[in-house]
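As a warm-up, study this chain.
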Amino acid sequence: MELPRLEPLYRTYRQRGFTVVAVERNRDTARAKAFIAEKGLTFPLLENGEGESEVVWRLYKVSSFPTSFLVDRHGRVVATHVGFEEGDEVRLEREILRLLEEGQGSGG
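Now compare it with the structure written out below.
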């Protein structure tokens, strides 16, 4: 399960400019909110009330779940990860740190 493993990264690096946004993949907002509350997740959820998250799926050509994107401070997708396995959070954390350091060095 990907989202609970992203929570520690979000809590650790949010003060440095990192964020996580969960994008709902269906129209069952109540179920998505219940999952987030049950798991104690604190990052934002993009709801699909009027089809907003469907736009995200099409824009980024998401074809399987979970799919994660690392987006830099300029809004560019710099990494895409399809699937999530035990230990992937370690690799993801290295990429996050690299991006945060690059952002600080360039004036963010």
